[in-house]
Write a structure and sequence with these properties.
By secondary structure, the chain is an alpha+beta fold. Among the domains are: 257 residues, Vanillyl-alcohol Oxidase, Chain A, domain 3; 101 residues, Orthogonal Bundle (Helicase, Ruva Protein, domain 3). The protein is 40% helix and 19% strand. It contains 25 helices and 24 strands. β14 and β15 form a beta hairpin. It is elongated.
């Protein structure tokens, strides 16, 4: 068995480019290092380790141990937890709303201020996990085949932990080092640079380099490498985050490990066991010759023998690997005073966590290259450890969602980092917001509506508002509020239709006829086959000229259809016409007239507050049909549509609306749209197959405060752990859990109370603080 870890020798640089220990950089991210080895880096997706309970942590730890045991002995591997600062230009481009020529600049600036404050609170520090493999290979092609094979195996292992391995190409890998070296170089075209024969190291080398005995001056900043020289036998998990989690400047914690072939490790251990057994036999003979008892062997021998047996069992039965591991911590600061302060903080945090951490005196250059994700070990400080002993040093902390140009969802309760999610990455972007009354579900939906309205001018937003909560908000954004009731001056022609009318491939008039049939189901309290025939014939007749004109001009009205049916000779037609009179000539004729509101407004709210129970079934169908017109039209014009349905549970009791939402939730993705359902009735979701299917077709679920009686149902419906449910048992108003795909994040969506946004979204008459203090 190899007696010590591999040490890589790197000569002291003669010029700035020599600071980079790389010979060749390939487009796919493979480096050929100066020592002849090849290395490749990957990104490991973080998981919500900190947010789960003990049982789940044990499960994650077991699977992480399997991951560590999966490295072949021809690889040296380096796991790096990197906490870096997001630069201002990147932050502005990635997260802030862009200016626009409208009257909403005050609100837009407030959203940007809220986002900026969250980023500032977290010191603009963001964590990433890198895995770097390095190996000896006779050629680039052979090295590439090694890396490709290893990546497949490691990815399969990480998937069991809800993580994944993401490839890092050459340009992105260079940017990691460029960001660290503070070289102030502009963007690089690596392909063009390689083609032109230029040295890509120039792009990532620092502008200045000077190595002192306990720090390095690197460009405009100072850097220092520390090493973990020892740690307690019994330490708690999550050591890495406890050591570097509170450092306000960029820092890397790297664990460089060299696996020993298992057969060699076992053979070496068996030789040691044989030697101990031989010592025990000799001791027994000596005791016997002295006529002394020898039944109980000395305690030291017992301990040594038991430990080696356990060690062999760990290798053989538990599939652990023996590793030579080196742990380094590299941190930077703008001043030497800041650097010294952070060094003291790291050493103190390490002591609290059970680790002895020291500054690498006179080996800062070697430490720098060991800590950076090159795949090198340039210092001779290492210790042998089993892969199972590495579990305390798990790199995982909390999963973040910070997508480029994503939607704003507040901040992560654990890390305090911004949550920005790009819903277009999901299979569908439908959302369910579930909460008990008064916990902030409507406020969450309004904040979502406001941000989307500002973020994308090509998105139309439609709100179904039964509680009259959205009017002032919609008007503030320049939208249209349509009040639906028997007395309302606002009218929607239930016969309106466009040539794209359908979210499927049905013919428009055929589908519209089905809708009108459902209206007559309510008017006639049921409908006979003869009545269906008459109605269908008359619908086709009244639409004939409108369709022939290319759906241009004025659409027929319900009164037009009434006149057509009244002119029929069948006795059933007279009965149909008589029943229609209430909805054509009588007090419920609001949908029999020409549309006199702007149903094409970019932001549109259907206010159903005054719609009584008698009009509700027909009125709701007309509203939904109007929405269908809009969605289908947007589908072919390339615009996106968001539909927000407040108190969704109210509409699932009507057959037509339940079926409408069921189909819409399943198919709106094809129409470039998404739905947001807001409801307080979790038991209804459990008992309704329709509701359960809609929930399963919602890859975004927002959970605010939940009733204790509903928690078990929530756990089953949303596949959430008991530990995570603590975030919705009795949270602050505006706080809860956000489930995006398989990711579950505890969020805090509270906003400052002294803002225009708060004034617009607040629905609490008592002004209890949904906002932050």
């Amino acid at each position: 068995m190899k007696e010590k870890a591999r040490i890589d020798y790197i000569p002291i640089p003669k010029k700035l480019q020599d600071v980079i220990p790389v010979k060749t950089i390939y487009l796919n991210g493979i480096f050929r290092l100066k020592n002849g080895r090849f290395s490749k880096s990957y990104r490991i997706k973080d998981i919500n380790y900190q947010a789960v309970g003990k049982e789940e942590k044990r499960s994650y730890s077991s699977r992480y141990a399997d991951f560590l045991s999966g490295f072949e002995s021809e690889f040296m591997y380096e796991i790096t937890v990197s906490r870096r600062k997001l630069n201002l230009e990147e932050y502005n481009d990635k997260y802030l709303l862009k200016p626009a020529e409208d009257d909403l600049e005050e609100i837009r600036n407030e959203y940007n201020k809220i986002i900026s404050d969250i980023v500032e609170e977290s010191n603009t520090i963001y964590q990433e996990i890198y895995l770097t493999l390095s190996t000896d290979a006779s050629s680039y092609e052979l090295a590439k085949s090694y890396f490709d094979k290893a990546a497949i195996s490691l990815q399969n292992s990480l998937v069991t932990m809800d993580s994944m391995l993401e490839d890092i190409d050459g340009k992105e890998r260079l940017e990691i080092f460029n960001d660290f070296n503070n070289s102030d170089k502009s963007d690089i075209d690596l392909k063009d640079m390689i083609k032109g024969g230029r040295d890509a190291r120039t792009y990532i080398s620092p502008g200045y380099f000077a190595c002192e005995h306990d720090y390095i001056k690197l460009g405009k900043k100072y850097a220092r490498t520390l090493v973990v020289t020892d740690y307690s036998t019994y330490i708690k998990d999550n050591v890495i985050s406890r050591i570097i989690g509170d450092i306000p400047n960029p820092v890397m914690f790297s664990i460089t490990s060299d696996p020993v072939p298992t057969d060699e490790a076992v053979e070496n251990a068996e030789q040691r066991l044989t030697k101990i057994n031989k010592n025990i036999d000799q001791w027994k003979k000596k005791q016997h010759s002295r006529h002394l008892p020898y039944d109980e062997i000395p305690y030291d021998y017992q301990v040594q023998r038991d430990e080696i047996k356990k060690f062999i069992n760990n290798l053989r039965e538990d599939d652990m690997r023996l590793l030579y591991s080196t742990m380094t911590i590299l941190h930077t600061a703008d001043t030497l005073e800041e650097l010294d302060r952070d060094t003291d903080a790291v050493i103190a945090a390490g002591k609290t966590a059970g680790c002895k951490i020291s500054v690498l005196e006179y080996r800062q250059f070697e430490g720098l290259h060991t800590a950076l994700p090159y795949g090198l070990r340039c210092i001779d400080i290492s210790r042998t450890m089993l892969s199972g002993s590495m579990l305390a040093f798990t790199p995982f902390y909390v999963e973040e969602i910070q997508d480029y140009h994503g939607s704003f969802y507040g901040k992560n309760q654990i890390s305090k980092h911004l949550i920005m999610a790009d819903e277009t990455k999901l299979n569908n972007a439908n959302m369910m917001i579930l909460a008990v009354p008064g916990s902030g579900k409507s406020v969450f939906a309004k904040l979502k509506m406001g941000f989307e309205a500002l973020a994308d001018p090509d998105t139309d937003i439609i709100v179904i508002d039964p509680e009259r909560e959205y009017g002032s908000l919609v008007k503030a954004y320049g939208g249209e509020v349509i009040k639906i009731s028997a007395e309302s001056p606002h009218h929607i022609n239930l016969m309106d239709i466009n040539e794209d009318y359908s979210i499927e491939e049905d013919k428009p008039v055929t589908l519209k006829s089905q809708f009108i049939m459902s209206i007559f189901e309510h008017i006639l309290n049921g409908i006979t086959p003869a009545e269906k025939t008459i109605i269908d014939r008359c619908v086709i007749n009244v639409y004939k000229s409108y369709v022939e004109a290319g759906y241009k001009g004025e659409a027929p009205t319900f009164e037009t259809l009434y006149d057509e049916i009244k002119s029929c000779d069948e006795p059933e037609a007279r009965d149909i016409a008589l029943a229609m009179e209430l909805f054509v000539k009588g007090s419920l004729n609001t949908f029999a007239k020409k549309t006199n509101v702007n149903t094409d407004a970019r932001i549109q709210c259907y206010d159903l507050w005054d719609m009584d129970e008698q009009l509700m079934p027909v009125g709701l169908e007309v509203v939904l049909d109007s929405i269908l017109n809009r969605v289908s039209s947007n589908r072919f014009s390339g615009r996106k549509t968001i539909i927000i349905v407040e108190e969704l549970h109210m509409y699932l009791k009507y057959q037509y609306s339940a079926e409408f939402f069921y189909k819409l939730w399943k198919r709106i993705r094809k129409c470039n749209g998404r739905c947001v359902g807001v409801t307080q009735n979790v038991p209804d979701l459990m008992t309704s197959d329709t509701a359960r299917t809609m929930l399963s077709n919602s890859e975004l679920v927002v959970l605010l405060k939940q009733s204790e009686d509903d928690l078990e149902d929530i756990r089953k419906l949303c596949h959430i752990s008991d530990e995570q449910l603590n975030y919705v048992r009795n949270p602050l108003k505006g706080c809860g859990l956000l489930k995006i795909g398989k990711t579950v994040i505890p969020f805090d969506d509270r906003i400052p109370k002294d803002t225009k946004i708060y004034e617009l979204v607040n629905t609490d008459s008592k002004e209890k603080s949904y906002a932050g203090n």
